Amino acid sequence: MSEIIGLAFLLPILLISMAAHELAHGAVANRLGDPTAKEHGRLTANPLKHLDPLGTLMFVITYIGGSFIFGWAKPVPVNPWYFKDHQRGMMIVGLAGPMTNFIIAIMLAALLNALAPASATIAAMSGGSTLFEALFLAYQVNIVLGIFNLVPIPPLDGSRVIAGFMSRDMYARWSGLDRYGILIILAIFFVFPGPFRTILGGAFEAISRVLLPAYF
Question: Does residue 22 have an active-site annotation?
Answer without folding.
Answer: yes
